């Protein structure tokens, strides 16, 4: 079979779907992918990795965020020309614009396609015009899909209840899973009396960064010995706040890091107070490494944590709730924190093994 993948980021394609591509090629399928034009030097290495997997790339201009009718029409027309020329036997789409515009094109050209909704994004957070617009577009785009994959049951239920697609055409996967060989269990750090928290993600309001900063300020003012490492690029302007907190001595901003494993291994607890997620891969990666996880009590985050056993859950957008569970973590002995991490690793092995999720995905596709 000729299989075409349409997504919005080549680095994400390799990191989260590389094992799936590898297995498809191994089974004798030809795999190509449509990705946006290069705008990030970190994507160059991932492009080479994809080529080593024998996945050919076609780059098309794309604005990942926002909706511009002219630019989006050009994107859809570019998808149309490419899909018509390639004549794939199956198309897999990931993320909102590829899902919608790729779905439109595949339906028009009568090409079999499968859609992966990796998160509903900001469009479904309110009940305004944008939500109604995206709902209408999804109804058209997903109507003829072979299957629509979701990363958590809540996202699936929202789409089904909006009558976008019937439930029998959906399947919930445990996200993209986590590569347990790449994110190996690492011995728990015992060389410090300071609790080192870690955040990995885009520095933006919807990742709960404001609540996290407020909780850390309270902890330090309350005499708790703790610091916070922040990894990730700026999605919004937090430069002044971060510079201020660095001067206060409890925050270390480390920017984008290609390999997050050394930073996870160094931390005592991972924190992600996000407002919404499809499935937060960083939670899975930290838990697989054997670190307790503090995250929001929302679908897409809560699946990674057994509350009070492998970490703690906190109400989203609630700085006080986050403070309380981070305080609990600071008060735990190193032995209890280590035990949380060990049980979290077992949870990843049981529920989130990427090998098992790739196998499950292929059963629905083939």
From TrEMBL:
Pfam families: Glyco_trans_4_2 (PF13477), Glycos_transf_1 (PF00534). CDD domains: GT4_CapM-like. Residues 2-152 form the Glycosyltransferase subfamily 4-like N-terminal domain. Gene3D superfamilies: Glycogen Phosphorylase B. InterPro entries: Glyco_trans_1, Glyco_trans_4-like_N. Residues 190-346 form the Glycosyl transferase family domain. This is Glycosyltransferase family 4 protein.
